[in-house]
Amino acid sequence: MIAEKVQIPRNMWDEYALCVNFDKESKQLEMALKFLQNAKSLSSLKKLMNSMTSSSGGSDLISKTTRVPMWLSTDQTLAEMEPLVAHRLLCFRRRFWFSDLNLDQADSKLLYFQFQEIKEHLRIMGSLIKSCSIGLADAAKLVVLLSKIDNHDKNTEEALLDSARELFPAHNAESLLQLINAKLRAGEYRFGDDERELQIKFITMTRHLSPFGETYFHAKDHNNNEVLLAVSRLCIAWYIDGILEEKFSIDRIRRWMAIPEKQLFQMEIDRGYSELYVLEWVTNESAEIQSLLDGYVQLTLRRNKRINNCGEEKAPSPPTQTKNQTDPPTHYKNKPIVVNERMI
After folding, report:
1. 175-217 residue pLDDT tens
2. pLDDT digit string, tens, across residues 94-113
């Protein structure tokens, strides 16, 4: 297995998978094939395209350039997946940010793999989320660390700007540089020269960022606002214009369901006082969001099983999830919450 070759710990293998990345043109071709397969005549094809566009809240949602990769099933062989993966680059990536690697015990190859993985994850965060939702001071410190790792203590302004633009494309690099220079003059950044220690510090700092471990999905809320829906092991959050709008702990989510045919994803959130709050988003990736949440539930259950056997610290209990339904959930005001769905 690839995970074994990279020397990823056995308990983290389920968090990685092979995927295929589709660009904008590939997705448009995929949509066109679906239209042609389902249409029986030119008139029905036109109706199908019109209904697809209206149900997604506009063609702009369909033509999003940023798209979640398509994860390949571990139950299929490469021969069975060949028609799908032909002439496309296969990527081995982390799908679930659930466990943390013990950095002190990692050898140099595994530590470098983790460093590159974390750096790419941070770059995705920095390209979608504004500095106020990450922390300008933390962002500045990470830029200095990366510049020191890549340039071996040659922290010139040009090197710092390059690191800032690499990690945080959505941020103002000049503002970051001004803050860095002020802190350098105050003597706040004092790092050693050992590359291993610098990489460990970089990884550790990134892990402590509030958005760390989030997977992002483009969507629209009930007010037709463009939002960025974020799913992680602990929370569900959404951002508007790169700024955090709201965040809920995952153990407050009582039910969720994807309705792919309507391009909808719905959740019921416990706000307390026996009241469920229903949230709904329009997104092309509703099935992937549900799959991601299901996966985190499975990983939590497995960890808790190991904890019960080994006596480790217990992880948070997973929420309950419903099967796909055609009818949307309803509010339950001033009534006890009854959860009778099976646990994933």
Report:
1. 899 999 999 888 888 888 889 999 999 999 999 998 999 999 9
2. 889 998 888 988 888 889 99
Q: Where are the domains of the chain?
A: 2-94, 103-207, 215-310
Dihedral sign, Cα of residue 81, residue 84, residue 89, residue 94: negative
**103-207: in CATH 1.25.40:** no
Taking only the tens place, the pLDDT of each residue in 317-340 is 555 555 444 444 433 333 333 333
**Cα–Cα dist 104/131, whole Å:** 30
CATH fold label, 215-310: PH-domain like (2.30.29)
Q: What CA–CA distance (Å, rounded) separates 181 from 160?
A: 10
pTM of this structure: 0.73
Tokens 């690499």 -> residue: 166
- DSSP string covering 85-121, please? HTTS-EEEEE--------GGG--HHHHHHHHHHHHHH
Q: Are 275 and 262 in contact (CB under 8 A)?
A: no
